[in-house]
Design brief:
By secondary structure, this protein is α+β, with helices and mostly antiparallel strands. It is 42% helix and 18% strand. It has helices spanning 14-23, 58-75, 97-119; strands at residues 26-28, 32-38, 45-49, 82-88.
């Protein structure tokens, strides 16, 4: 199993983000809000939104994005053919990164359970 995060696994265009947001299927918690949409591909794709209201400094926003990307890279094989947009709601630093990543994993698990039950 390859654990790459290539260009094909990223949402890059505004239209891709808009189509995920327009479906309005999402779950959230204190740290993140995750939107999901089937993409018809054999792999999952990820888009990230970390605004300046969440973290003023670019290095903090980049740390949040790196952390989410790393989690996605390690777990993308179990996510199926869906597009995910992760929107950060609250900043986190190294000290509470574990808590934030646990919250992110719980959201993805909840979304995949919902998708599986609605498609059955």
């Amino acid at each position: 199993m390859a654990y790459h995060f290539r260009r094909a696994h990223r949402l890059l265009k505004t239209d891709d983000f808009s189509s995920v947001f327009s479906l309005r299927q999402s779950r959230g918690n204190a740290f993140f809000q995750v939107h999901i949409r089937p993409n018809g591909l054999s792999h999952a794709r990820l888009g990230l939104v970390v605004g300046k209201k969440v973290a003023k400094r670019a290095n903090r926003r980049n740390y949040i994005k790196r952390s989410v990307r790393e989690w996605f890279r390690l777990h993308q094989h179990g996510l199926g053919g869906n597009d995910y947009v992760v929107r950060a709601r609250q900043p986190f630093v190294r000290e509470n990164r574990g808590e934030a990543i646990t919250a992110l994993a719980a959201l993805f698990a909840k979304l995949t359970r919902c998708r599986a039950s609605s498609s059955s």
